[in-house]
Amino acid sequence: MHLSFPVKRQSLRSGLEGYQYYDIALESARKGGQKTKIMHLDYVYSSTCPCSLELSEHARQTRGQLATPHSQRSVARISVEVLEGEVLWFEDLIDHCTRAVPTETQVMVKREDEQAFAELNAANPVFVEDAARLFCEQLERDARVGDFRVVASHQESLHSHDAISVLTRGALFDAESLDPRLFETLIKRG
Questions:
Q1: Cβ 44 vs Cβ 188: under 8 Å
Q2: Is the dihedral of CA 71, 140, 1, 108 positive or negative?
Q3: Helix (H) or strand (E) holding 183
Q4: Is the dihedral of CA 114, 116, 118, 121 positive or negative?
Q5: Secondary structure class of 62 (helix, strand, coil)
Q6: Is the entire prediction scored with pTM above 0.85?
Q7: What is the DSSP letter of 117?
Q8: Domain extents for the chain?
Q9: Long-range pairs for 130-134 at CB < 8 Å and ≥24 separation?
Q10: Pick the residue with more confidence: 177 or 161?
Q11: Contact (Cβ atoms closer than 8 angstroms) between residue 182 and residue 176
Q12: Which of 37, 108, 172, 174 makes a 20 to 30 Å CA pair with 54?
């Protein structure tokens, strides 16, 4: 089952509200009498490159040159096994993501919100590998979650390719390779 789950979100400073829609899929499988429940969530966030941020600040301090660190829209596809007898709410999984990487894309934005978002990004620079690890840390703390897979995709504004990191825990998501179409589905267009 696939759905677009709405959650009301408030802007960072202006007090505006709007709905953020999360792509969620629920999967259930039975093998040898064993039932497996899997929840998939796409979490869309902004990622500011730590190296680019440092280089931009260096240019400002050493040459008085204004420079902008590169940031890009990024997507994490979180897939978790919900353990037998446990309940994991959509909101719980979304909360894990926002605690891990708080730079979620914004729904309603005025100028003061854009400034707050720029400040939030500068305070939370993250490489794709680090983002994947941060998501994993949150999932590992939840006793309702069994095996999981995190696919983080930073849709680069500097490089002509995306930066992707995949981390898994447990046998359920262990694989020699991934379907290449998986990465195409991570691109979120507005």
A1: yes
A2: negative
A3: helix 181-184
A4: negative
A5: helix
A6: yes
A7: H
A8: 2-184
A9: 131/45, 131/47, 131/74, 131/76, 131/100, 131/101, 131/165, 132/76, 132/165, 132/166, 132/167, 133/167, 134/100, 134/101
A10: 177
A11: no
A12: 108
